[in-house]
Amino acid sequence: MARTAVSGRLSWQVARLAEVRDETPSARTLVLDVPGWPGHLAGQHADVRLTAEDGYTAQRSYSLAAPADGERIELTVQRVEDGEVSSYLTDVFSLGDPVEVRGPVGGWFVWRPSDPAPVLLIAGGSGIVPLMAMVRARRVAGVRTPFRLLYSVRSPKELYYADELRAAALSGVEVSYVYTREAPAGWGREPGRIGVADVNTGGWPASFEPACFVCGPTGFVEDVSDMLLALGHDPRRVKTERFGPTG
Fold first, then answer.
1. Helix, strand, or coil here: 59?
2. E strands, the chain, in order
3. In what residue span(s) does the FAD-binding FR-type domain sit (predicted)?
């Protein structure tokens, strides 16, 4: 997931690619070693900067896909058509190569394992990335906080973290899917955009006062937020993170 990078007082650090995992035909997870990384919370993101030989720079912001792990971070990058940064990171960037990173950035769209409230995660496409960091943080912390994840995606082949989400469903995270373009054979719901019925069925009742995290394209986030409010959820407990073209 990429957003326009946010300026701040954090210093740029040189990271090196330590591991790569393919998630979909057009997305891969980059595991980076970042000496001196200060740690982060699930839901935060990092800025990435590329510098060409002629001094031209380009930077984007990518959600951190996993909880803090010493000096190692994970970013899941979706290749964007004509994207100068994402194309390099998904097609050219090789093991051992350096890249500049800065972070962590953001302190509002975060989940802490010490929060006992039920959690509702609603993702659209690559918006699953920071929400997956929360799912993983729950597992690493060994807490039993009630989690529900509603994941809207175009087709099964575009699911991020498919195997891990199946495992999460066996460890107390309730996962449901909405396919908008193509559904698996025998799927009980016709492909289509997420609706109030999906949010109502896949989410928690408003009376449970869950912490709601919604992430995805701007239109998706606005629609889902309206659905949550219509279902009676407290707007103060609905946190959103959106992304779109970087130009």
1. strand
2. 2-3, 13-24, 27-33, 45-51, 57-63, 72-78, 98-105, 119-124, 147-153, 173-179, 211-217, 238-243
3. 10-111
**C-alpha separations of 91 from 5, 216, 237 in Å:** 21, 23, 39
Half-sphere exposure of residue 108, counting CA atoms within 13 Å on the CB side? 7
Tokens describing residue 210 = 């869950």
User: Which residues neighbour 147 within 8 Å (Cβ) at sequence distance 6 or greater?
Assistant: 118, 119, 121, 134, 135, 138, 172, 173, 174
Structural domains of the chain in order of their starting residue, each with its CATH number:
2-105 (2.40.30.10), 119-243 (3.40.50.80)
Report the distance separating Cα 170 and Cα 120, nearest Å: 17
Structure tokens at 94: 């090789």
- For 164, residues 6+ apart whose C-beta sits below 8 A from its C-beta are 132
Mean pLDDT over 45-66 rounds to 94
Is this model's pTM higher than 0.85 or not? yes
CA proximity to 200, closest of 92, 122, 126: 122
What is the number of other CB atoms lying within 10 angstroms of the CB of residue 139?
A: 18
